[in-house]
Amino acid sequence: MMIIKKSGKLEEFNAEKLKAGIINASLDAKTPLNEADANLIIKEIKNIVFSIRENKTSTYEVFSITIDVLKKLGFKSIIKEYIKFSIGE
User: What DSSP string runs through 29-64?
Assistant: First the structure.
């Protein structure tokens, strides 16, 4: 699946890059994730993205889905840091 970046550039979806961002946000939130939790979050995000899009999505859509998944799975404490991490603060 291709991701439309903020710059308009197309890039292959990289689950490991997304996972690293979520883990970094969890560390900043003082709520470190274990490997199983990180993998569960990524699996859920991928399931949703791939169920609604066939071959292309945007970073904005992945960002929104990530926020929803973090809420749904009970990782609300990570959301604020993930938002800051994602917008480059």
Answer: TT-PPPHHHHHHHHHHHHHHHHHH-SSEEEHHHHHH
